[in-house]
Input
Amino acid sequence: MPFGKYKDRFLIDLPEYYIVWYHGKGFPKGLLGQQLQTVYELKLNGLEYLVRNIQKL
Output
């Protein structure tokens, strides 16, 4: 995350409530918004493990 309380964290490591809040508020435009939308979908569908497995490599 490039700014705010969670600055310098991987997007996948953001708390679920924060991603859900962005979903309700509206994701920002541009690449960051697309990435947050993807993280939302991953968390929503229980697919975080896919990213976690890549992080281990």
Notes: The mean pLDDT is 93.
